[in-house]
Structures are given as structure tokens and as C-alpha cells.
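Section handout, structural biology tutorial.
Before the tutorial, make sure you can parse a SMILES string by hand: atoms, branches in parentheses, ring closures as digits. In the record below the ligand is zinc ion, and the chain has 325 residues. In the tutorial you will relate the predicted C-alpha cells back to the input. Do not try to memorize them.
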Amino acid sequence: MNLIINNHVIDSDLYTILDKIRIETNNRYLGRIVNHGDNIAISCPFHKDGMERHPSCFVYALNDNDNVPFGFFRCFTCGSQGQLYELVAYCLGYGIEEAKEWLIDNFSKTLTDSVISLPEITLTKEKKTYLNEDILNEYAYFHPYMFQRGLTENIIKKFKVGWDPNLDTITFPVWDENSNLLGITRRNVKNKYFHIPESIGKPVYLLNFVKRENITEVIVCESQIDALYCWSLDMPAVALLGTGTKKQYDILKNSGIRIFHLALDGDLAGRHGILRFIENMPDNIFMDIMLIPDGKDINDLSYEEIQNLKRVDKRDYLQDININV
Ligand SMILES: [Zn+2]
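Predicted structure of the complex:
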């Protein structure tokens, strides 16, 4: 049985999904992942503090038992069980909605609209509240980590990147395209944990600056640090805070930007993100794909390496993908 979330089929390889959870927790959870074909055994995150030696939590891949959704898990030691997004939520410290978004962003290629017709699910939205910019004054400090990642002083000031001395986290304010402050994401300097508050949703990071400055050509990256780094190199950029959502494509279609240079991460999720981006944007928008090396993101590359990246037109990219599938 497929796992369908908000009309998206989660249809990536289950092992890859579990492995990304492991990576994002810095090996804190899912230290062991053993592929048995029909199912995958993982170190259960719910007992023994995630440290069990013999993996006894089973996650089900497709498809012989039609009552079990893709990614359903069940621990044979502690009895914990649930849906894949509950596992994601627990391991990554997300709320359920955020965990669902994470799965959609990273691991869905297919909209069910085109396969099965389901009524669009409209979630009742709470009225948005915005933060007062004054809160950013509390974090108006520089931290060496910012410079290690290649950000310049001007860019740190311009985009109000800060440091919270109490939590030892780098703070990144996130605005919507109309410059309303939606929230602050945080990266822990020591353990690199990254936290996005649920209230932020999925805006296009830094699009408010792009619009204000009438910029019509941008690099599109995944993470905030990627986008800030591009700006530091004098290359305007936006970040998707992930690999892209339908709502973000809609925002970008109406943004006035005419040229997109896609610089998503050099991994499977990034490549899926590129495909979705191409397929969800109108034909008349120019875009090319900057081929980021495997295992890298744009923030790992020097200015020269970025200049020398191979770039391919979207049609060539699609053709290459079809050959390689
Ligand atoms: Zn367990």
C-alpha cells in the first residue's frame, strides 16, 4: 500500500529514506539499518535510548501485505509502532506536519493528482502571526562559524544572521516574500542540529530581498546557508528550506524572476527536487542546472569551483535522467 501524504506519493527507496534520517540525526538514531528486502530492520529509536545492538524495529517496504502502508514500523522489543512520518517526527524532533513536509520535500516524485484523482485536501489554516523584528537585536552577534561557512560581514548584517549566546545557536531569520518575519531557524554550533519552527512553513527564503531589489536572475539552493553563501559571492540566491514544495513553485512563478540556476544538493533528494522544479514551472521560464558533485552542496565549493561547474539546460537534464533511469 502506498503512503500518500497530502496527495503526494512517498515513492523513494525506503533504505534511502531511513539513511537520510540517520544522517540528519548525526547517527544519533538508526545507527544500524539492515535491508531484508521486504522490510528493513533498524535500531529502534524508542527504547534503550536508540542504542540497541541488534536492530529489532522493522520498517515495511512495499508491498505484499496491502494493509500495511509503505514505511510502517513496528518494534518487536518495545512494541512501538506507527507511520513513517511518526518515525521521522520522533527522530528529527519535528511536529507531525513538519515530518510530513520533510517526506514530501525529499522523497516524493509523484503527485497523486495525475495517477488517482483525489479531492484536494484543504487544511484549515490558522491566521498567520508575525514576529517583531526587535527580537533579532538579542542575537546581534558574530560567531566564527558564520565566517567558516564563507559568509561575509556585509551579508551577515544584511540578512540579520545572528548568534544566540544562551543556546549557542546560529540564528537565521526567515521572512515571507513580503518581508514579514515568520520565525527564526537555528543551527547548533556544536552538534550541528538544525531546527525549523513549525510556524515558519515553507516560504522561499530571501525572496523578499530579491523582489525588493528587482533581481530577475537567481540561484536556487536548498539550505539557508547555501543561499547566504551565494550572496556572499555576489550571486543572488533563494533557498527552498528543503528540496521544494508546490506552494514554493507557485510563489516563484509569480515572483518576476525570469532565470533560475538550480543548485540543489548533489544527492538523490536534490536530483528529485530538480525534476520536480522543472516539471512544476512553466515552459517559458529559463532555467539551467548546476551539476553539484555527489555528496556536496554549493556551500562546500569555492568561488572558482562554482564558476567551473558544468551547467546543463533543463531539456538536456531531463534527457540524461531518462537515459540513466
Ligand atoms: Zn523499540
